[in-house]
Amino acid sequence: MPPSIVHLALSLVAFSTAGQALGQSQMELNQQSYNDYQKADKQLNATYTALMAKISAAGKARLREAQITWLRFRDQECAFETMGTEEGSIHPLILNNCLTGLTLARVKELERQLNCQEGDLSCVRQ
Fold first, then answer.
1. Which one of 56, 70, 101, 122 is CB 3.0 to 4.6 Å from 10, fit for a cystine?
2. Does residue 121 form part of some domain?
């Protein structure tokens, strides 16, 4: 995953959250960030399901394994990145923003596989 995609996704999430922050309590901001993460997760699941329907049995097995590994990575990466806020009321907001950003980056990766361009040798052709 290119760092630019992750950083762009995280920046967009942070910007949208900051734009909504005026006049909201920390609890409301935390809830909004959770809602954003849930929306991204639903998008991830839909894209994953669509890709699974398109590929061979061998491709499905590899994608399933890759997705399980990626989910572990995402959760561990966000736990690491948010260590500095673990004791604060802002922690859910920061954690959810991290989860959302990485999830949206994964959606883009899966969408690229789902919508393979002819001649792209990095795409699954099964």
1. 101
2. no
Give the chain's length: 126
Considering its fold, how many domains does the chain have in total? Answer: 1
* Domain contains 68: yes
DSSP codes joined into one string, the chain: --HHHHHHHHHHHHHHHHHH-TT--HHHHHHHHHHHHHHHHHHHHHHHHHHHHHS-HHHHHHHHHHHHHHHHHHHHHHHHHTGGGTTSTTHHHHHHHHHHHHHHHHHHHHHHHHTPPTT-TTS---
